[in-house]
Amino acid sequence: MKNTWQTGLGLVTLAAMVAAVYMALVGAPTEAEQGAVQRIFYFHVPCAMVTFASFGLVAIAGALYLWLGSQIWDDLEYAAVEVGMVFCTLVLITGSIWAKPIWGAWWTWDSRLTTTFILWLIYGGYLLLRTFGGDTPQVARFAAVVGIIGALDVPIIVVSVRLWRTIHPAVLLTRQGEHGLQDPRMVAALLISMLAFTTLFVWFLSLRFKMLRVHSRLTGLKRDLALWQAAGEGGR
Amino acid sequence: MSGFGAILRKDLKLEMRTGDSTITLIALSMLILVVLVLAFNPAEGRTGDLAAGALWVALIFAGMLGSSRALVAERDNSCILGLLLSPIDCAQIYAAKLAAAFIFMMVAEAAAVILLMLFFNLEFGMKLALLAPPVILGALGVAAVSTLLATIASRTRAGDLLLPVLVVPIFVPALIAGVKASAAALSGATMAELLGWIRLLIAFDVLFVAAGYLLFDYVVVED
After folding, report:
1. Secondary structure, 3-state, chain A
2. Is the pTM of this model over 0.90?
3. Which residue in the set A141, A146, A160 is minimally distant from B176, CB to CB?
């Protein structure tokens, strides 16, 4: 059965997630300056990583769809946007929860926050386009174009908002080459959490992708049936 | 480039005779400026920043509407089929439509800048010359993104409502750079101080004009 590896991946994800929750909440020591709030970092960072991976995948699948025209790339692209949006929303929510006690505000227009939020808006627009467009090959091409220019925009967004303002903590490695995680148990918690979120991402993506494949096949069959019926009526 | 020239000439001639796009764009820019003046009351200081922000709000919304008009008008009369059937590269159609939208926007922006000076009580002079590069580059950026995306938006159930949802987030980096550069220009900065933002605007324009040029094929083709 095809489903076996998906079920297996789901179980691996479950195990990794339990380990990640344990490591993040119990295994890793409490950070000296920020206290318990810092623990949300073990979920925030993997979510951000997965978000960028999935939006990157959107651009690649979109380009392949425009190039090769095979429905499979369109389905992969759509699935990646949907799953990417879930994780992007999680990044924004977990970031806000951390920012309130540390920065004293739920939201600031810092460069990283702004970049992530703009990505969220771009791919939110993509989902609206899919919703209002219906599923025709034409809308699939439109969506691929939006997905590609959204990804092209990322470097310019990053540069512009960085010139604009930034207060976000340096990501893992600072300029001096040291990272904020002093304890090896903290590093372990982060790595396990990254593994858990990666498998979660692949699992979500595979489920959604499979559903879209079935949907595309159904649409194709319906179209064939309609053509066949029309041909039958014409013959009579 | 004969296809490009022919389409652009046609659009300009049409515009000279009807004036639809430019008049609508000027009216819209003016209304946006009036709304922002009433909303923010520039008499209370920080005039330069407010004026720059107001100008860019007018620029982005007028730009989106103007660019979408150019292509929607072609489809209303099924002229787009004629364009697609003609032996002209799709990319040239894009370039011509972009050039037309950009020219109409420049006319509207010139009017908007004059109104801005009056409404916000700013001095005419060198500051205006420094305002030109960011505004021209910004107008080109809006026109490039909107011309590509207007075709997409107008063919969905939501219609033109979807256009701002798609264009504004994409345009954010140019918006940040443009507002910053314009505010600096209005507060008396030198060209050298604007250069960082101008470079960003140029990068944005190059990227999205190229993207539009390459991707327009996939957007405009009818099934």
Report:
1. CCHHHHHHHHHHHHHHHHHHHHHHHHHCCCECCCEHHHHHHHHHHHHHHHHHHHHHHHHHHHHHHHHHCCHHHHHHHHHHHHHHHHHHHHHHHHHHHHHHHHHCCCCCCCHHHHHHHHHHHHHHHHHHHHHHHCCCHHHHHHHHHHHHHHHHHHHHHHHHHHHHCCCCCCCCECCCCCECCCCHHHHHHHHHHHHHHHHHHHHHHHHHHHHHHHHHHHHHHHHHHHHHHHHHHHHC
2. no
3. A160
